[in-house]
Amino acid sequence: IDVAAAAATLVDAAAAWLGRLLGLGDAAVHAWSVLRFPCLLAVGVLWCAILFSAAPAPRRPGLAQTLVGAGFGVAVMIAASAGFSVYLSHFASYERVYGLLGAAIASLVWAWLLNIGLLMGFEVTAALERHRLRGSAHDSLPDVVSSDSGGAGGV
Question: What percent of the chain has pLDDT over 90?
């Protein structure tokens, strides 16, 4: 968390410096403040897509399936983080119950929720890949199977 905060601070300073250097002034800082979260979302989806494509699988999923699953996983992780944040701020009493260990326990629960989101994204990727493979298998089969083809007959 400290690394992310330091990176966000340095990137803000770099955007201000770049804006002054290019003569854009505060426009670069404003542009970065608008584009910061879409860029973080894109980095998260890219990270999940790389992880999904590197995971062991009988067949490598296509790029479209991987990106959809990664996007779903990131969306679930964001929703879980927001929901857990609301839970911690309004309902939880980890500090009163566990003392100093409360923050560690809350961090582990949050990591578990993020892992569940990651697994859900991977399941979406696998389901889309299975659907794609079934569709290609059905395309290769004949449309109509004749009943008088010498098969089992009327069984």
Answer: 25
